[in-house]
Amino acid sequence: MPEQLWLPGLEAPPTPTDGLFFAVYPDANTAAGIAKFAQQLCEHACVRSGGRNGVRSKPIAANRLHVTLRHLGNFAGGLPADVVEAAKRAAAAVSMAPFTVEFDAVASFAKRPRVGPAVLVGEHGVRGLQALHDALEVRLRDDGIEPDERFTPHLTLAYGMPWIERRAAEPACWNVREFALMHSLLGRTRHIVLARWPLVGQS
């Protein structure tokens, strides 16, 4: 295959193939309920749009529903071993008690009037996620990973959704007892668990 150039005389940067992130997953029963809600949202969006305005709503499968705690990067040709090991060391140093998370609203992560992700969000019920993210961020920084404090606790329901005003939704609630380091095979809708850590610290 001929090489593609992005600037005269320069090779195009390699296409990322692998992602690395920390995540929290709902239990199976909760995930099934959230997936059903996501499907209903997509069906409603399709009816409302009549297929117009580029609406191609696609709900996330129940086994892939998750909250991303911290994205560590996308990479070409596999995951760098040093980043994976640093992430594992940081995660092992986190001490936090289990907690309950509750998402009680649905919102859009798109800019009006564009289509984009529909997500579950919350207020008081997501403070545990914020605390876990912050604790993990401190340990990552200690292990030399550049800080990224941008974090809005959310759970993506579907992609290709029309913009919606934030509104209340039936609460999605579960007990968070562990978090995981995930390997994402980009473009292949597959996530691989690299390691899990239980939450066993004192509240």
Automatic annotation (TrEMBL):
Q: What's the Enzyme Commission number for this chain?
A: 3.1.4.58
Q: Where is this motif: HXTX 1?
A: 66-69
Q: Name one Pfam family in it.
A: 2_5_RNA_ligase2
Q: Where is this motif: HXTX 2?
A: 154-157
**Record: active site:** H66, H154
Sorted UniProt keywords: Hydrolase
Catalysed reaction equations from the record: a 3'-end 2',3'-cyclophospho-ribonucleotide-RNA + H2O = a 3'-end 2'-phospho-ribonucleotide-RNA + H(+)
Establish whether keyword Hydrolase is in the entry.
yes
Leading EC class = hydrolase
Domain of life assignment: Bacteria
Identify the InterPro entries for this entry.
Cyclic_Pdiesterase (IPR009097), RNA_CPDase (IPR004175)
Range of residues in the leader sequence: none
| Described purpose of this protein according to its UniProt entry | Hydrolyzes RNA 2',3'-cyclic phosphodiester to an RNA 2'-phosphomonoester.
**Which protein family is it in?**
Belongs to the 2H phosphoesterase superfamily. ThpR family.
Q: What is this protein called?
A: RNA 2',3'-cyclic phosphodiesterase
